[in-house]
Design brief:
By secondary structure, the protein is of the alpha/beta class. It is 28% helix and 22% strand. The chain contains seven helices and nine strands, in the order αββαβααβαβαβαβββ. Strands 7-1-2-6-3-5-4-8-9 form a nine-stranded mixed beta sheet, with helices on both faces.
């Protein structure tokens, strides 16, 4: 499906930031180990430094490299809702740089259910993106390719078309999993009761 795999890899390897579709809203991301590119995301969005990015991939297996063993309750949520519109915030390990998590000890992880996004992750080195939504801070998230172009042209280094795999338009639900306890930070596409 993706026509420009080489270009995507080249942009990311050269401190680049890409915009792409997910199952929820459009994302803006870079390689997690690239501090320059992460800083660029904060500059593009005019994002507050204390707001962390999250890590997304096409497979939970790749994300496990960045977190401490996930408590059982978190594993159950992963089995039930991944891939899908759930972000799990859990304890990070030493592979997750502080500049992604705003120096917090936790990181959000998610596996979106979108073929184009999954293909991007299959293509890129490490298969993981440090990511946030493709909009300026305090502005609505981009829900279509046209909105992503409007928001990110001249800012993102590459805006990847969605090939008809559209975003649904509602943000992911964000849940914290610490010490086998759940905390809902944001109700989104998936409705969770605790």
């Amino acid at each position: 499906m993706l026509k420009n795999k080489d270009e995507i890899v080249e942009v990311l390897n050269n401190n680049g930031v890409i915009a792409y579709v997910t199952d929820t809203v459009w994302g803006l991301g870079c390689l997690p180990n690239n501090e320059k590119a992460v800083k660029k995301i904060y500059e593009i969005k005019k994002r507050e430094a204390q707001k962390p990015l999250i890590l997304m991939s096409n497979d939970i297996y790749h994300l496990l490299n960045y977190v401490k063993p996930i408590p059982k309750i978190g594993q159950q949520l992963i089995k039930k809702y991944f891939p899908g519109a759930l972000t799990i915030v859990t304890d990070k390990n030493e592979n997750t740089p502080d500049y992604i998590t705003s120096n917090m000890s936790t990181v959000g992880i998610r596996v979106p259910d979108n073929k184009v996004f999954q293909e991007i992750c299959e293509t890129i080195p490490g298969h993981v993106l440090a990511t946030t939504s493709a909009n300026l801070s305090h502005q609505p998230s981009a829900k279509t390719y046209e909105q992503a172009l409007e928001n990110m042209t001249g800012l993102a280094d590459l805006i990847i078309e969605d090939y008809g795999c559209h975003a649904k338009g509602l943000e992911s639900t964000v849940v914290g999993v610490m010490n086998n306890e759940l905390r809902i930070f944001r109700q989104g596409e998936i409705h969770l009761e605790i």
